[in-house]
């Protein structure tokens, strides 16, 4: 999330919150819950902290559920239904802005991190074994191997990739076992 997005996010959250202050909506429990959550998000934005897209999405789902309940109660043409729809649409905009800059990776992409690290670590240990077989000293091979794995870990930490960090650090375990056997 860019710092320039914060004023836009504040404005969208303020507009959404003002839509929920309508007198016919204040009596709905779901709207009260969503309003409280929006107040928390507005407070975070005042402190220049980034709320999670998942939190905004959850508030949007609360509003859509309230909208569907109002459709059952009052029909599609009521003002409350239109207001709840508008508020949910504003939250979709907030979600899309937050989601552009969010660094969270879903579980599916973490599988790719796992596969990449395991394959990369396997290749490194293959080269390590080849160098030992060719007669290179154990200390030199171990230091180079530890350096490459440390570099791989640093890149994973820089990318905020927890799965890759774990598996690249786990790649040091066989090296530790080799030295202490």
UniProtKB/TrEMBL annotation:
Assigned keywords, A-Z: Membrane, Transmembrane, Transmembrane helix
Membrane spanning residue stretches: 102-128, 134-155, 162-179
Domain of life according to the entry: Bacteria
UniProt key word Transmembrane: yes
Keyword Membrane: yes
Name by which UniProt lists this protein: Uncharacterized protein
Organism: Erwinia typographi
């Amino acid at each position: 999330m860019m710092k320039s997005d914060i004023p836009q996010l504040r404005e969208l959250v303020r507009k959404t919150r003002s839509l929920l202050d309508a007198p016919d909506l204040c009596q709905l429990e779901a709207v009260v819950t969503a309003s409280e959550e929006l107040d928390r998000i507005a407070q975070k934005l005042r402190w220049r902290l980034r709320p999670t897209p998942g939190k905004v999405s959850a508030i949007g789902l609360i509003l859509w559920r309230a909208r569907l309940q109002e459709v059952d109660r009052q029909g599609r043409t009521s003002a409350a239904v239109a207001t709840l729809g508008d508020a949910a649409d504003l939250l979709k905009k907030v979600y899309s802005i937050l989601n552009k800059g969010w660094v969270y990776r879903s579980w599916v992409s973490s599988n790719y991190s796992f596969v990449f690290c395991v394959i990369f670590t396997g290749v490194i240990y293959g080269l390590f074994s080849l160098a030992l077989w060719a007669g290179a000293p154990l200390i030199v091979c171990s230091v180079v191997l530890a350096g490459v794995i440390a570099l791989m870990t640093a890149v994973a930490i820089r990318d905020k990739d927890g799965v890759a960090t774990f598996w690249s650090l786990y790649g040091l375990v066989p090296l530790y076992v080799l030295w202490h056997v």
